[in-house]
Design brief:
This protein is an alpha+beta fold. The protein has 3 domains: 155 residues, Cytochrome C Oxidase, Chain J; 270 residues, Catalase HpII,  Chain A, domain 1, CATH 2.40.180.10; 158 residues, Class I glutamine amidotransferase (GATase) domain (Rossmann fold, 3-Layer(aba) Sandwich). The protein binds CIS-heme D hydroxychlorin gamma-spirolactone 17R, 18S.
């Protein structure tokens, strides 16, 4: 047989003109080539092999293509690649569990190739429809080099990226600050093809098997009869599903906590959820979970804030991201990995690594930083970039491989399939934002929205007419070679592993890791959401699930619903809390936070100027709030621009407030309104909108400061001066310092009642 292969290889080589023998450079290539055809009846000179082509035109943040030939997708170049530019070692065999099969669902090359072929003869995301995105760069520390051979994770390699954040449930026009999970998807345009890290801001998922995804999504989407409620989980069908399907309760308790209403996309963690298999230069494998850690800290809104924002500024998160980038305050995240030995059991300290409803606490497996993501440019066109970007967990590069997580397997199918409908055909990899920055030499042809003008006559392998090009890449030429993991022979079953049946230990771990105030907010969220359900049976079933997590949680929610609290059916497990899961009790950076300075013409304008400068110098955003738009001290040599007026400002926009003057109630301001109704006070000598600013900020436990002359504003707003987080003084700089110290904790947590 080997003689036959050798003769075949020589024959092909003879037919090829040009330098050297490209076949010789490809280990194993002759073995993958069937014997050549007999001589053509009309012999003619074969086409010469073509050189590696240039990458397709990359799209930049400024919208300017940075070069590359127009006909960038002919079957030219040295190596056959996927549509994402990843070199392929083989295109003739499906990935199978042994030579006799069965074929594995995780064969993303097979699916890409066949999917594309199926659609060669020539609408909103079904989930994650609403999003906001930005361009940036990922700089690798090189600390992952020992576990993965991925080129973009080598030391100091910089890779362009595009990151899209999203809500899951609402449609494209829904509001940003609804209670929901957030998507956190990053496309890395690496030298080895596109790598997509398609994660969420919650490290676990609702379900353990992709086959249930349509069920959970149907349950959380609006009711099919009236199509309400929009972008909400607070309705019967969602809680019906969760209460009947308790593996969802872990994800659910995460988004009932503050994690479901982030303060900003810039202040969210991200998680790839599944366990991945990394492979290094020596072929050694390691299991890993990916984490994004925001430099700005992990912060949430409180529920009332989130609701006000939905009305006042439904684009709050989108605006916040774009404004920060435009101001040069580039958001940053560190990418980190938790690593685990790749043992046959695929468990770590008893935790099943293939179960996407389980975390591994950071205290057991520390998150090791491997690189820094900086988002530094806003998209130039929402549709072209944010809307048309197509992520896919199967866009992988050598060094990162999948595991047998059944949720991941379904995703590997779904993300390609959904783009066919959404982007109108199989050529979405040619849309500028999706184009790899690595050479693409695929043999995918024609179809809807084909933009390439292909040359050559032989878009098939093997061929002699195009000089046999392009060639396969072995592992040492950057080919994506699947890790030959062993698949044990077993019976075909529709079953989950036993360990997947534990649905409550980790929700309890999460609950016990929260601080008392975070627990109260979580109780309030459960009480609100279940309170919006009509069916008592659904509430009762959910309470039974809560009883398996914690008696206090269950009792408080039950009391709020006016229902009896059930008992747990077993002794609750003794779990060790994970302090890393709480957002309270740590000091965070204050860079990028927004401080409002309230003033009018009668305020000490020098003090206002000084405050503004000091806030700015501290890397924060000062926003002067004045009775009207325009400028304060217009006649002075140094007028102060008012960024907000009493009509446009609302407390939710500020992380802290400092009152520099007490703005009297203006002639026209609310002349016909009842000041008491707005401000909770009968005194109308202060503009009621200022009182509203203060009372709301106070309720939301934000740091509040006042220059001594203005402290009366607190009395008028019924804010006791001796409560925590109220700072009054003559020296503006000292007041600011104290306010910023408080802001380092995000909120004045002591101001919230907390018993749990
Ligand atoms: Fe997705 N998901 N998903 N998902 N997902 C989509 O793909 C799907 C899951 C995530 O900004 C869709 O292009 C299935 C987990 C993000 O464009 C679709 C299952 C995680 C985004 C799809 C999951 C995610 C999506 C809809 C269960 C976190 C937005 C539009 C097996 C690790 C990406 C699209 C963007 C989008 C399917 C579960 C994250 C339909 C079948 C778990 C961030 O293909």
């Amino acid at each position: 047989e080997s003689d036959l292969i050798k003769a075949a290889a020589e024959k092909i080589t003879d037919m090829v003109e040009g330098d050297g023998d490209p076949a010789a450079a490809v280990p194993g290539r002759p073995g993958s080539q069937p014997p050549p055809l007999e001589e053509p009846t009309e012999p003619r000179e074969p086409l010469p092999p073509k050189p590696d082509q240039s990458p397709p035109e990359p799209y930049t943040a400024t919208g300017r293509p940075t070069g590359g030939p127009a006909e960038a997708r002919a079957q030219s170049g040295s190596y056959l690649t996927s549509a994402q530019g990843t070199r392929l070692p083989d295109s003739d065999h499906s990935l199978k569990a042994g030579p006799r099969g069965p074929v594995l669902l995780q064969d993303h090359h097979l699916r890409e190739k066949v999917m594309h072929f199926d659609h060669e003869r020539i609408p909103e995301r079904v989930v994650h429809a609403r999003g906001a995105a930005a361009h940036g760069v990922f700089r690798s520390y090189g600390t992952a080099e020992n576990v993965t051979r991925a080129a973009f994770l080598r030391k100091d390699v910089e890779t362009p990226v595009f990151t899209r954040f999203s809500t899951v449930v609402g449609s494209r026009g829904s509001a940003d600050t609804v209670r929901d999970t957030r998507g956190f998807a990053t496309k890395f345009y690496t030298s080895e093809g596109v790598y997509d890290l398609v994660g969420n801001n919650i490290p676990v998922f609702f379900i353990q098997d992709a086959i249930k995804f349509p069920d959970v999504v149907h349950a959380v989407k609006p009711h099919p009869d009236r199509e309400i409620p929009q972008a909400q989980s607070a309705h019967d069908t969602f809680w019906d599903f969760v209460s009947l399907h308790t593996e969802a309760i872990h994800h659910t308790i995460w988004f009932m906590s503050g994690r479901g209403i982030p303060r900003s996309y810039r202040m969210m963690e991200g998680f790839a959820v599944h366990t991945w298999r990394l492979v290094n230069d020596h072929g050694e494998t390691t299991l890993a979970k990916f984490h994004w850690k925001p430099k700005a800290g992990v912060h949430s809104l409180v529920w009332e804030e989130a609701q006000i924002v939905n009305g006042v500024d439904p684009d709050f998160h989108r605006r916040d991201l774009a404004d920060a980038i435009e101001a040069g305050a580039y958001p940053e995240w560190e990418l980190g990995i938790q690593t685990f030995p790749d043992t046959p059991e695929q468990t770590f300290q008893g935790i099943d690594l293939l179960d996407p409803t389980k975390i591994v606490p950071e205290e057991l497996a520390p998150v090791q930083p491997i690189g820094l993501l900086t988002l530094n440019a806003n998209p130039s066109n929402y549709f072209a970039e944010t809307e048309q970007v197509a992520f896919h967990p199967g866009h992988l590069v050598p060094g990162i491989d999948v595991t047998d997580d059944a949720l991941l397997a379904g995703r590997l199918f779904s993300y390609l399939d959904t783009q066919l409908l959404r982007l109108g055909g199989p050529n979405f990899a040619q849309i500028p934002i999706n184009r790899p920055h690595a050479p693409v030499n695929d043999m995918l042809r024609d179809g809807m929205h084909q933009t390439a003008v292909h040359k050559g006559v032989a878009p098939y392998k093997p061929n002699s007419l195009d000089g046999g090009c392009p060639f396969f890449a072995g592992g040492d030429e950057g080919g994506y070679v699947e890790v030959p993991t062993r698949v044990e022979a077993a019976h075909k079953v529709r079953k989950a592993p036993e360990s997947f049946a534990d649905h409550f230990t980790q929700p309890r771990l999460f609950w016990l890791s929260l601080s008392p105030v975070e627990r109260e907010h979580t109780i309030a969220a459960f009480t609100f959401e279940l309170g919006k359900c009509y069916e008592n049976a659904i509430k009762e079933r959910t309470l039974r699930a809560l009883a398996e997590i914690d008696p206090y949680l269950c009792e408080k929610v039950a009391a709020g619903l006016g229902l009896p609290a059930p008992e747990a059916t077993r002794e609750l497990p003794d779990v060790q809390p994970s302090p890393a899961l709480s957002q309270v009790g740590r000091t965070w950076p204050t860079k990028g936070r927004v401080i409002g300075v309230v003033a009018d013409e009668h305020a000490d304008l020098d003090a206002v100027r000084a405050l503004r400068g000091q806030i700015f110098d501290g890397g924060m955003v000062p926003l002067v709030v004045a009775p009207t738009g325009g400028r304060l001290g217009a006649d002075s040599g140094d007028p102060i621009v008012a960024q907000r007026s009493f009509a446009t400002a609302r407390s939710v926009e500020f992380d802290a407030l400092i009152v520099a003057g007490i703005p009297a109630r203006g002639e026209d301001a609310f002349a016909t309104r009842d000041a008491k109704a707005w401000s909770g006070t009968t005194d109308v000598s202060v503009d009621p909108r200022v009182l509203q600013l203060l009372t709301e900020a106070y309720r939301h436990a934000k740091p509040l400061g006042a220059l001594s002359a203005a402290q009366q504003a607190f009395d008028l707003a019924d804010i006791p001066a001796d409560t925590p987080g109220i700072v009054v003084g003559d020296d503006g700089a000292a007041v600011l310092r104290e306010v910023v110290d408080l802001l380092g904790h995000h909120r004045v947590w002591d101001r919230f009642p907390a018993h749990a």
